Structures are given as structure tokens and as C-alpha cells.
Amino acid sequence: MPDFIRAAGLGLLSLPMMAISISNTAHANASPIATGSPTDLAYPNIDHGLNESFYPDEATTAKNIADIIEKSIRKEYSTGIALRDAHPKAHGCVRAEFKIDEALPKNLAQGIFLPGKTYPAWIRFSSGSSNAKQADIKKDARGMAIKLLAVPGEKLLNDEMSTQDFIMINHPVFFVNDPARYMAFMQDINSDSLLKKLHIPFALGAKGTWIALNTRNKISDPLQTRYWSMVPYQLGTGADRQAIKYSAQACSTVTDPIPHTPHNNFLRENLRNHLQKSEACMEFLVQPRTSNSMSVEDSMTEWPESEAPFYKVATIRFPQQVFDTPEQNKFCENLSFTPWHTLPEHRPLGVINRMRKVIYERISQLRHEMNSTQRVEPH
Ligand code: HEM
């Protein structure tokens, strides 16, 4: 397969696309998700007040995309353990504390952002390529998925009762908005025909292809890059609710060099060595939209930081720890992250997030079913 095609897929789309005390043998507590708990596959509605608007037939397109992903997973993992369709390669699942800043302005002190509060968290670092064996030295999108625990309040999905997820990639914008383009891209990338693969840049358009290529990058340590939500979220409820994006970055600007003779899984090795030697720290930032011209439906255009600055709302502390055990790696593989594991105060916005609601739920269920594993809610 020509490199560009893999590049354009960037694994993003598989291609398509605590206890806070840290023990050395991390034992993960988890409860099975109640059998028979109703799965919420209803397509989300839109919030006109925050300028959301539907694309034609987007709910049907989301279902069709989920069908394509399902087919590709069934084919790829007809034997062995079924992995995630996107971001199947984990560099580690680590424990963290997510501590909200002591003083926050009222417009940011919403939902989980209660000044001074600390949540235990699991954080999964990953690479985007659908090839779980890809060497870490290859350019790729890098993921950071945060799952806060012990979060009180009713959530938008009912499969996890006490969690709040934040999912990010280390690039500020996503490479597609229009569900029809995304669908065409998925058909092309999942086809065996070379002609279809050559069609990918036409499916994505010039801007989408440019973003897809630029989302791929090399890093030396998952704790030393900056991540963005790429797509927008609500903050708060009622008349004062606003649209925001979020981001996480290292507390220090020090970055280690890329190794000269990199092992296949050097990102896992570097993360392991880093956290075995010392604790680490990241900042969690929120970017409120400052003008309606910053669209919630267009995730291909950055909200310029010069016009809409990010504000720090929390510190993520990674205690010194040993995370790379077979038990913890297995636990991590069985977790399910989705932007819809959330309080209503952080409701996902925009077409990409609406489609993710039905797609992530379906694909997580599928891989658990194929592996005969129960889906679990960690605590
Ligand atoms: C319509 C667009 C998208 C589709 C179809 C899609 C699809 C998927 C799927 C199927 C999974 C695996 C779910 C599972 O098995 O549990 C996944 C995981 C993931 N996606 Fe997306 N995705 C989309 C957009 C995005 C965006 C905008 C981001 C940016 C933050 C993103 C970041 C991630 C990350 C980091 C993971 C891994 C989460 C983990 O560690 O478990 N995706 N995606």
C-alpha cells in the first residue's frame, strides 16, 4: 500500500480513521456493566442556541460508517483478540490525579470543574494507526484518553455511572466535517481497489488531505506533547452555557530527543522509564469560544488562540508508578472511552461528536462481544 494512503488514513479513522494510592502491582477495580442495561444508540439532537445544525442524513451516514467499521474489524480480527478500530496501539494506561484549580472564574467553574476538587483518573496513551504493530518511529496521530472516576451526577450515557471522559489527539483540528465526505473516505480506505485508494485525496478535499497529513507526527514521550479535543463541547447548562474546546500540555517545556536507534515500542519504554523514575505533570486547559464565527460544526478550522485564549482549569499529576504489567494492560484494553461518557455540563457538540456517539458505542460493544469479555466500568 503506498505510504500516502496509510498517511491519509492516519490511523485516525482507522484508517477510516483509584484509588489514588499507587501500588507497584497496579490492581484495577472494575464492575461489569449491568447486563441488560439499555444501550443508548439514539442519535443526538442539536442545540440551536449554541449554533449546532444537522448535515443532510447524518444519522443514516453515521450508521453506515459504523457498518463499515464493524465489517473491517470482523475481517481484521477473524482470529485473535479484537482491538480498537482506531488507536489500537496503547503506550500505557496510567493512573493520575486530576486536580481542579483552587480559584476559577464562575464561567469556567462548571460541571466537574469544582474549585479544589481532585478526581482519580485512568489515562490511556495511544497511536492512531489501525495497525497496532506499527513502529512508534513512524509518523502518526497520538491519543490521550482521560477517564475521571467518582464523578457524581447523572450522565448522558447510562452504561457508566461515575465516569467523565476527555479524549484528545496531539493536533488542534480534525480532517473532515462533512459526513458524506467521511463516508466516501471510509469506503475508499476499506476497499481493496487501488483506484479507490487513489481517490482518497478527492474524498477528503485539499484541506482535509492537508490536515490528515499534518496530524501525523513523531514524539519521544507521550507525556511531552500537547493534545487537543479537536472538536467542541458545551460548558455549563442553561442560559449561560457556552461552547469550548479543551487541551492538555506538559507542565514543563522540556522534551527529550527522538531516539537514534528506536525500538518498535519506544514510546511505551520511555513512558515506563519516565514514571518509574519520577512523577509527571500536565495542565488541562479550556478555550471558551469568543465569537459565533467560531463554528461548532467546523472542526477543520482552529479557533485562533489570539482571539480565544485557553485558560488552565486543572493539573493532572501522574504519580511515580509501575503501569506496564500484563494485568493492567489487559484491564486497559477492555476500557471504553467515548465523549458521551459525560455530565450534561460537558455535552459533546458538532457533527463529528454526534456521529461518535453511535459509532463508539457500537464498536466498543462489538470488540467486547468478539473477545467474550464483559464491558466494565472502572472505579
Ligand atoms: C467521526 C469521526 C470519528 C470516528 C468514526 C472515530 C472512530 C473511533 C473508534 C471506532 C474508536 C475505537 C472505539 C472503541 O473501540 O472503544 C476510536 C477511538 C479513539 N478516537 Fe476516534 N473517531 C472519530 C473522531 C475522533 C476525534 C475527533 C478524535 C479527537 C480527539 C478522536 C480520538 C480518538 C482516540 C484518542 C481514541 C482512542 C480512545 C482510547 O484510548 O480508547 N476520534 N475512534
Structure write-up:
This protein has helices at residues 3-9, 58-76, 179-189, 194-198, 200-214, 266-277, 326-333, 351-370; strands at 30-32, 89-100, 118-127, 142-148, 164-169, 227-228, 233-235, 242-250, 280-288, 311-318, 376-378. It is of the alpha+beta class and 379 residues long. The strands form 2 sheets. Strands 2, 3, 4, 5, 6, 7, 8, 9 and 10 form a 9-stranded antiparallel β-sheet that branches. The radius of gyration is 20 Å and the shape is globular. It starts with a helix and ends with a strand. The longest helix has 20 residues, at 351-370. It is built from 8 helices and 11 strands. The structure holds protoporphyrin IX containing FE. Protoporphyrin IX containing FE binds next to helix 2, strand 3, strand 4, strand 5 and helix 8.
Labels describing this entry:
379 residues; alpha+beta; two-stranded antiparallel ribbon; 8 helices; 26% helix; disordered N terminus; binds protoporphyrin IX containing FE
Secondary structure blueprint with pairings:
Layout: H1 3-9, E1 30-32, H2 58-76, E2 89-100, E3 118-127, E4 142-148, E5 164-169, H3 179-189, H4 194-198, H5 200-214, E6 227-228, E7 233-235, E8 242-250, H6 266-277, E9 280-288, E10 311-318, H7 326-333, H8 351-370, E11 376-378
Antiparallel strand pairs: 1-11, 2-3, 2-10, 3-4, 4-5, 6-8, 7-8, 8-9, 9-10
Helix pairs in contact: 1-5, 2-3, 2-8, 3-5
In short:
The chain has helices at about 5-10, 60-75, 180-190, 195-200, 200-215, 265-275, 325-335, 350-370; strands at about 30, 90-100, 120-125, 140-150, 165-170, 225-230, 235, 240-250, 280-290, 310-320, 375-379. It is α+β, with helices and mostly antiparallel strands. The longest helix has 20 residues, at about 350-370.
